[in-house]
Fold:
Amino acid sequence: MSGVASVVSLVELLRGNPGSCRWTGGLNPVDLARAERELGTPLPPSYRCFLAEAGSCEVDGTDFLGVYRTPAMGDALLGTVGGTLDARTDPRFPPDLLIIQYDGMGGLVCLDLARRDRSGEAPVVVWDPGSADRGGPERLADDFGSYALRQCTQALTRGG
Structure:
């Protein structure tokens, strides 16, 4: 299943489990373009689809940052945009990574834009400050969609 098809299944999963799933709501095209502009790169297709459909989500304790706003922060794009721009101030953080999730153990789950495939999808990796000493970030999945669908399905299975 492609990354985008996996996101379509993920959105169906979210809608089918309203008691266990929350999401902020899809981004409009203007905010998607703004997120890409602020990050300085086009987003991988499956992540772009996720942002357009869900914005961000939480499924029984499994969170995906996505992109969203809060009243307290006004017009600022939070989640992947704010987290990635903040992480880029650390010289150890590779500039081609986009943060999509925190792993709860000090690692950052990211999309590795330096390794995009022909369709523009980027693999999901986990990075921490010691990653370079271990040969680089650990690869978790080929694309955002398959990773997110797997993680959310497992969260619902554990929770139910």
Remarks:
- The first strand starts at residue 21 and ends at 23.
